[in-house]
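agent> Task received from the user: take the single chain below, predict its 3D structure, and emit structure tokens. No templates, no multimer pairing.
agent> Plan: (1) validate residues, (2) run structure prediction, (3) serialize to tokens, (4) report one or two observations.
agent> Step 1 OK, no nonstandard residues flagged.
tool_call: predict_structure(input=
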Amino acid sequence: MKTQHTRGKSRKATFLLRNLATRQTESLKTMLRAPGPNARALIISEPFWGTAISWYNLYGPLYMVALGVSKTQVGLITAIGLTVQVLSALMGGHLSDRWGRKRTMQLADTFGWVIPSIIWLTAQNTYYFIIAAAINGIYHAAIPAWGCLLVEDTHPKDRQSIYAIVQMMFVGSGLLVPIGGLMVQRWGTITGGRAIYLTGLFIIISALTIRQKGVKESSMGEDMVGATIKASPLDVMGEFSTSFRLIKDSPVILVLFLVQAIAMFTAVIRNTYGALYMTDTTGLGLLPATIAVIPAATSGAMIVALLLIVPHIGPKQTHRGLQLGAFCFTLGSLALLAAPPGSMLLPLAFAACNGLGAAILDPIRQASLANAIPDRARAKINSLIAVLTLIATIPAGPVAGALYSVNPKLPFALALALQLCTQILLFWLIAYHTKGARNT
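)
tool_result: status=success, residues=440
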């Protein structure tokens, strides 16, 4: 029989849960109201990109090795793609201002994803993958344009919500990765890989069609087209020089750029060698079809974080949120390094921690960076940051490949060390802002 005290505690708990649910619902409604027309079209297309890219990232290295590419060559092919991405990103900012954001984005993604998907689909040997990686690198010219279209014509306070929704839609598609695992399980690594690339090709064409119909040129893009057409090559170089000085002289932009560079470097290690390590007999020795649950676990954790945690991280908690996201990545690397062969438990913990880290860190970092960059310099600075990030990332594949050949655990030990560096940088950024707040 319940006492009056017990009933009181029960009513209080019910009230607290109802209050929490109400606040959570309001936070989600606010987040979902943020996107404008361009952001909405880009968000709708994200699950398509996410599905294809998740399949390619997970099963691409296994497909290459099955067709005779050595594990060291996998890293070198990754480096070739990154080198082309550097050149493409350098041109992407200028082309976004000269041709317009939408045209640049659509052309770069068409050349950078449709043609390589056809080559991967028909690949026979290492040379196919080298050519495909080089052409695939062209897609990076779309990144500055995509970043501009996503945030231009939107209020700065809405940008974190927009990035969170983009992240949610992209990672939600990771729940479909087990379908790729079923293809590999049913037809084997090579035939299943070809089925993945054929399906991915149709998915990418669908995404491009959605963006073509739903995205309009931004008002800032229209202004910049007129101004840039009249610019001389010297003017263009001068703008990049000014952008570089702005990055160098802004502690916030510089630290966020370094955090982004480290995140991309470690992502290359995970994407290139994660599946190989988990399926290699010298690694964890798991079945290729089994590891399809890893991206699904990552996606599930990200969706939970984006729904329950990110909406409550306001402007005053921004830097703490960055630190929390970085800490989750660190825990994920520790889990993978500690995983015993044949066990899925710690790899799933690795996936979940990476999902939490990406969901918390990425939207806050991207929104903070977007708000720190002047509007008229956005395309050039986005382009320059992409270039510098890629230059820093080019060695990731070869270095990880060399380390993997010595010991399969070493690439992930390097990732752990770099993630600890990220946390140190973010501690410094918190201290910098705290000091600035005291001085004002």
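agent> Step 4: summary for the user.
Residues 244 and 352 are 36 Å apart (CA to CA).
agent> Done.
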